[in-house]
Predict the structure.
Amino acid sequence: MKKSQKLFREAKKIIPGGVNSPVRAFGSVGGTPRFIKRAERAYLFDVDGKKYIDYVLSWGPMILGHASGEVVKAIIDAAIKGTSYGAPTEQETRLAELIKEAFPSMQKMRLVNSGTEATMTAIRLARGVTHRKKIIKFDGCYHGHSDSLLVKPGSGVATLGLPGSSGVPEEIAQLTISLPFNDICAFEQMMRTEGNNIACVLVEPVAGNMGVIPGTSEFLWALRNWTKKYGTLLVFDEVMTGFRVAHGGAQQLYGIKPDLTCLGKIVGGGLPLAVVGGKNEVMNALAPKGSVYQAGTLSGNPLAVASGISVLETLKNPRIYSDLREKSERLVNRIRMIVEKKKKEIQVQSVGSMFSLFFSKKPVENFDQAKKCNIKAYSRFFHKLLEGGVYFPPSAYEACFISEAHGKKEIDKTLKVIEKSL
Ligand code: KE4
């Protein structure tokens, strides 16, 4: 990986840590991040000519595989008409309608540029309409890097072993209450004492930023019932799970209707696009209609919208999800058989076409248990897979994803490499 090493050295001279997002730096697994030259279908190709079967898929977006013909064509067709107008287009309405077909709870929605913006806006909306300041999130859940949400987060912060982030004034951090994920008692206790002061409860219904840990149905229903009781908004952060765990996301799987939903990743097809949406009476509080301000130069950008429309049009075909489920079950079940055969202490946890491996004797239900897993073993495993041409997330606190482009050949090859690596 000579070229990646050289490029990494150069990058570090001008970009902090040599990367534009910390989790890409291989910080917790060690070694040199592979600089990518191009990607196609289920594969990444690095600058040293090595080819990898990709299970990161840009951290979720590439559900149709890389450089999917129709999506690329949609982006090119949009680009030749200009890349940004800063004025409304009918395609933005079209994309919103496509999203609403899959997420009926999103009666109105605002397009933004990142999951961070979507969740940041959701909590500002909740504070604006409830006139309350405190919010509840859950340990190990990651909702992007806005100040209020960098309290005990998962993903890159956990990967770096940081408690949170410096630079967040305690006056802001103390308004965020972070509770153990999947702990109904702790949550109910907090609502009994603080319920009337809580603007919103924000949760990843299936957590993907501490490895994959599904919320239990009882836990998520407790969130729904207690927030209703205290006039607190329930916000589902489905940036990762939206259009991933099911066409209608986790809210479809669990049959729970949140007050607000945040989407990202898949909805932009790999271009910068995310969404915050929900009940009319909440969303109507957003400027210019209401007094809660939110804005963005490139929000609803024609290229990102064209990409999103192309992906969501394709995802309307239910066969896609039955295909993905079948591939995922095959891969996950065969990994479990390998783990069983080799008597390894590994939990394979999955929901739909997202999964992760925990080097742990027991199933993992929350962040404390995730942190007790054998991170060193994961790192060794990660590098063995990489040598074998399989690209897993360079962090034990992330999720693996499967795309429509992963076929029998890729899955069989992956299983061989996993067996050898273990
Ligand atoms: P972005 O601001 O990175 O677009 O989205 C933030 C976000 C919000 N909510 C959930 C559930 C998320 O998973 C994310 C972002 N996910 C991480 C990886 N799991 C992004 C990868 C990175 O930070 O480079």
